[in-house]
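Aim 2, interim progress: modelling of the BIS(adenosine)-5'-tetraphosphate-bound target.
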Amino acid sequence: MGVDSTSSDAKPVTAMRIVMLGPPGSGKGTQAEILAESLGVPAISTGEMLREAVAAASTLGLRVNEIMAAGELVDDETMAAVVRDRLARDDAQKGFVLDGYPRTMSQATTLKEILDRSGRRLDAVVQIDVPEGELVSRVLGRQRADDTEEVILQRLAVYHEQTEPLVAHFGERSLLRDVDGHQSIEDVSTSIRDALVGEG
Ligand code: B4P
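Predicted structure of the complex, ligand included:
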């Protein structure tokens, strides 16, 4: 159970509850999809869930549209409800790769509470490091609605102020696995697998 068999000569990754941490454009979403697929668990992207809500013009979408467009974070209470519902679904019981949550200390506390309540715990937090100049050019190349230069600089400022403290937080709990994200997508995936071998 929990054994990844995508490559016969690779050691298995047994970690099943993983958080991807990193600045905007670091490749969290890209790598979450690849890792989740290989582990047979869902990749859960809070950014993607919010974008879907905006596209559907749901109550949630209408509420968060302007916040996201400005490069700010949606409030912790709203995000707690979104993540609590998503992690309660059947497909997330075996494990998950959480992309974009938590993004604040309060969200980290909420995630722990959600998992504690159902007798689960995090296995690892993968931090993807990428130099700032590379982040900006990647994001501008992507051309999403919130990917203008002004907004990406704001999102980076928000990351440094509100999300970066989580690096020390998870480091103190021995959950942090640092990965060099300034490589090809395939090489970053390999580095993540290497960092996770033996976890879980
Ligand atoms: P996200 O959707 O999480 O956006 P992101 O951080 O920019 O994306 P990511 O790091 O996943 O980059 P990607 O793989 O796409 O958040 C968007 C917004 O939603 C936030 O600003 C906020 O408003 C809101 N939000 C989400 N979660 C929230 C929360 N918990 N609390 C409050 N608000 C929240 O990669 C970027 C680009 O690089 C892609 O084009 C990709 O192809 C490319 N790329 C990836 N890996 C590469 C590599 N190794 N080499 C070259 N290019 C690469």
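Residues 22, 24-30, 45-47, 50, 67-68, 71, 73-74, 79, 99-101, 103, 107, 138-139, 142, 155, 183-185, 188 surround BIS(adenosine)-5'-tetraphosphate (CB under 6 Å). The beta strands are 17-21, 43-45, 96-99, 124-129, 176-180.
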